[in-house]
Backbone:
């Protein structure tokens, strides 16, 4: 049997207590959520074999259970010897973003995953829904997020050792400031949409100043999801660089994200592309190429209009994204 060549993925330190985060991770959100659990399981086992060590899931993706089964299988088959070799991220859904529901939600995620702890637990979005509301939801289910109370409950999860680090996702600058104002443990990570078509320079600078690590989701534009577009994969600038380099557009985009000093989560269930997406470490984009990419017109793909409501906390997209749209 031909051995798969395993790639060694660089890591970055997380806060003072967390385990280092692998700079390229593997996403498990398959739309519609929960549709392809067997595919998720098979893909994760293969991803571990080729070298991925960070796996990103969320309660709402319904991929925690197949991810957990894949981890158990990988431990049995031998590409990893210990769960400690992996970095697992999951996320608190909005319907559980209430002080008293945070710990039970994490305990449910751990049960789904078959794990005693995860490495990173994120508030999925700077919003909340009436307790127990799932996805999709109605505008009347939207309620304001109690930042202080929910973050205290997140801190409790870390203090109990059920997660090694805590963080947020989709938080713009003002929302991070609001959280930092009362946080005893600052968020270790902010996971946000980031790619050459949505470069988030202002947010990256802010997070760097505050010591918050950024993980990029949709680094290839998430084509095929509700929130995704083909603007990255069809970008002329990226195509020209890829052709000149003998690389794929995906590799150029992922390398650009990696060169910004952030980590990223990429999803492909195609075995060849899984390997291709890891082939970004032994070459780099030149200053000239980086400058060309900086000139690309900017467009936020994941706008989350569903959270905007006359009666809710966010009356406009400007409100929701602190003007960064």
Residues:
């Amino acid at each position: 049997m031909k051995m798969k060549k395993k790639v060694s993925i660089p890591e970055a330190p997380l806060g003072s207590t967390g385990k280092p985060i692998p700079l390229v991770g593997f996403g498990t959100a398959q739309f519609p959520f929960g549709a392809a659990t067997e595919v998720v399981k098979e893909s994760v086992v293969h991803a571990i074999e080729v070298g991925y060590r960070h796996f990103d899931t969320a309660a709402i993706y319904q991929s925690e259970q197949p991810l957990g089964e894949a981890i158990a299988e990988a431990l049995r088959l031998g590409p990893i010897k210990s769960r400690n070799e992996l970095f697992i991220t999951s996320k608190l859904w909005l319907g559980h973003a209430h002080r008293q529901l945070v710990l039970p939600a994490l305990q449910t995620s751990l049960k789904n995953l078959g794990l005693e702890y995860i490495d990173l637990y994120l508030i999925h979005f700077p919003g909340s829904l009436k307790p127990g509301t799932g996805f999709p939801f109605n505008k009347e289910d939207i309620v304001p997020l109690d930042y202080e109370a929910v973050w205290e409950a997140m801190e409790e999860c870390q203090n109990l050792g059920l997660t090694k680090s805590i963080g947020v996702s989709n938080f713009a600058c003002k929302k991070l400031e609001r959280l930092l104002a009362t946080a005893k443990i600052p968020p270790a990570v902010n996971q946000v949409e980031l790619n050459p078509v949505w470069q988030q320079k202002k947010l990256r600078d802010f997070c760097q100043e505050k010591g918050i690590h950024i993980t990029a989701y949709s680094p290839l534009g998430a084509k095929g999801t509700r929130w995704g577009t083909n603007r990255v994969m069809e970008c002329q600038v990226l195509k020209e660089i890829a052709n000149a380099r003998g690389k794929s557009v995906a590799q150029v985009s992922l390398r650009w994200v990696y060169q910004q000093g952030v980590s990223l989560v990429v999803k492909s269930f195609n075995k060849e592309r899984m390997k291709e997406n890891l082939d970004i470490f032994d070459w780099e984009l030149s200053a000239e190429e980086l400058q060309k990419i900086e000139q690309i017109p900017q467009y936020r793909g994941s706008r989350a209009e569903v959270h905007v409501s006359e009666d809710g906390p966010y009356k406009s997209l400007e409100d929701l994204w602190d003007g960064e749209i």
About this structure: The chain is about 35% helix and 15% strand. The chain has a mean pLDDT of 94.
